[in-house]
């Protein structure tokens, strides 16, 4: 089966400290993955390897057809869309851009629009805004957007580049429930665009029906990886979160509750 990405026995050390230890997992064509773990578990380090920002100390990696050490990583990144709260560092540049220009900038992987735009590209950006129900932001500037609108417009920007792999790193962090569901509605439609999704979070209730597989990360290693309902069990998540929990599914989404191991008062 054709693979979107493959990490094999990845070890990554920094300043003599092992950050990732024997990390292996594969994303096949047609699979949509989530990565779950506590803060500091190693989720961001896994992403940095996938995007080629950190190079494995040992092991091998192949992402969207690029084998590390044998091809250009900057060229590989052109096939990857990325949305994260870390993009807030570009706020001053984004602040003065309109919604339409922000989406258009995704064609060039830039923050700010510095190139001339042809009619076809403008029409494509307008279509993305329409699909995401964001046309009303077309002429408004970023500094007038709500937090939820900012996350959604950045997803639109990532889609403009037609990525083979779209990485969403905690896209719902800090959002209220309505804004979160607006973002998740967009996420749920991404596989219909024939793209592959890597959704990173520590909240399992964000995993919509679009997610088919889950990777659990703890202390720089992997607890489990595989089909969603096989991995999202109370036992495996209790291990991952270092807290006793129970899991149930409702409307094709998983939900987590703390397991009262001491028993109820009654």
TrEMBL record:
Domain of life: Bacteria
GO molecular function, one term: ATP binding
Residue ranges annotated for the ABC transporter domain, each copy included: 5-244
UniProt keyword list: ATP-binding, Nucleotide-binding, Transport
Pfam families: ABC_tran (PF00005)
Residue ranges that the Swiss-Prot or TrEMBL entry lists as coiled coil: none
The keyword ATP-binding belongs to this UniProt entry's keyword annotation: yes
Family: Belongs to the ABC transporter superfamily.
Protein name per its UniProtKB record: Iron complex transport system ATP-binding protein
Organism: Jeotgalicoccus halotolerans
């Amino acid at each position: 089966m054709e693979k979107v990405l493959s990490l094999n026995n990845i070890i990554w050390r920094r300043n003599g400290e092992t950050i990732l230890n024997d990390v292996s997992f594969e994303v096949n064509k047609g699979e949509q993955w989530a990565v779950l773990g506590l803060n500091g578990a190693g989720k961001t380090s896994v992403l940095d390897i996938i995007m080629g920002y950190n190079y494995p100390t040992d092991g091998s990696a192949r992402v969207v057809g690029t084998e590390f050490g044998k091809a250009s990583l900057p060229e590989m990144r052109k096939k990857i869309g990325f949305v994260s709260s870390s993009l807030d560092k570009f706020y001053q540049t984004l602040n003065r851009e309109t919604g339409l220009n922000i989406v258009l900038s995704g064609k060039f992987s830039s923050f700010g629009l510095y190139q001339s735009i042809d009619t076809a590209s403008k029409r494509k950006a307008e279509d993305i805004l329409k699909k995401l129900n964001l046309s009303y932001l077309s002429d408004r500037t970023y500094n007038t957007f709500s937090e939820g609108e900012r996350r959604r417009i950045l997803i639109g920007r990532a889609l403009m580049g037609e990525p083979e792999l779209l990485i969403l790193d905690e896209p719902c962090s800090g959002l209220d429930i309505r804004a979160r569901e607006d973002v998740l509605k967009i996420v749920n439609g991404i596989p219909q665009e024939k793209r592959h999704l890597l959704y990173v979070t520590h909240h399992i209730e964000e995993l919509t029906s679009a997610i088919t597989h889950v990777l659990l990360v703890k202390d720089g290693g992997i607890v489990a990886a595989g089909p969603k309902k096989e991995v999202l069990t109370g036992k495996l998540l209790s291990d991952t979160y270092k807290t006793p929990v129970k899991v149930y599914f409702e409307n094709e989404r998983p939900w987590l509750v703390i397991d009262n191991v001491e028993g109820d008062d009654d």
